[in-house]
Amino acid sequence: MNWSLLNVATNFNYLRYSVGIAMMFNGFPLIFFIRDTLGVGPASSVFTAIFFSLALLLMVPPTIFKRLYKPNVILLNLGIGFLALTLYYFFFMNSVGKSVADIGNFVFTFGFIALLLHVPNDVKDTLIMVLFLFSFFTNITLVYSLLTDPNWTPGMRAAVSFANEGAQPGGNPHITARNGVICMVSAFVMLSRTPGILTKIFLFFSILFGLGVLVLSLAKSSYLGVGIMIGAYFLFQFKFSNITTAIRNAFKFRNMLFIILILVGINYFLSRYGDILNLLLGYWDIFENRILDVIFTSTGVKLSDTADVDASAMGRVSGFGEFLETLFSWEVFLGRGYKNEYLDVPILESWVNHGIFGFVFFASFNFFLFIFAIREVKRYTNPLTTFLAYFFLSMMVLLVTGGRPYDIAFWFPYSVMIRFLGIRYLDNIRKPVPNNTLTTVTS
What we know:
The chain is mostly helical. The protein contains 18 helices and two strands.
């Protein structure tokens, strides 16, 4: 973690690119805080559109229309192919109407991808720092929102309450959980390559902070996603020799000082805020009960006397029935049309609504993204791409647990992965790479 990259005077362009990308990648928590907690701007999608427009404006480079940087071509082709197909369905196979919000989602997604192609590779070091600081600050705003919300009490799911009428009560805890995951993973990937002790301590406590926010969200999908990330780390990175190395390094004076400071900090925190630990343990008990409810709903196996039907899981079970009905009908080829059915299982909805071609594009895109993510977890090219790889592994759960295949909650992170994951970087290949730029055009 290089704090000098935050110097606006010497790193202005990379900072504004990074802030714009971070606003698109993880902007919803900050949108909800500004709009619903602080009451700034209209409590509607208009404010969201203004926020994302500002983000894209920050990303406009001085070399626009002159230079494009090479993304992951496989992911770009499959991603654009799926988006173009859904856009066709939006205009020509649409029985639900052409809402302004849907048009805006397509505009922002295509605009984001186009501007990312103009962002230089060297922005990666600044971008990972900005993503981390953005998520860390947003975690702080969440705490402020909860403390000032008269309707929130300990034991409830942590989220910013929406201010607009008829909105989902209690806010969106999945947005809260995602921000916690981003804070955890971005801090983790920078921790091993950060030399300063104070910065290491800050990153370590940021991981704990993000974990606490994740627990408070009670988002089952994010819990499972973190489990997948941890499993991938132990499978591809962890070695038994690391244990002896870690023990040997722990007795070095600098590392011992680091460990002592962490233990003192944890002891002080628990002695002063012991109720918070009990609160987190209580949330964990609630999570265990909900997992047992999901197992009972999905399989009929009752692992506890208190297990009951989980409404959200039941909706996905019924969605699988819709998929089977489509699979054995003529709709298997072309699908039922844009947003015709809501299955809450994106990978299945891509087939039900968009036919076999929609499924092939969407499933292939995620399959290759998984391959590139695993490859990156194995070799750890740089903090940004490692972060994107782990973050995608946590997102995989959502492909079968929630959302729609064209949600911007998917495609904004997907766009950043298309641009930066699985490509060759100048600092990793020291010899000149003539095809680093896709093309150069003159205006």
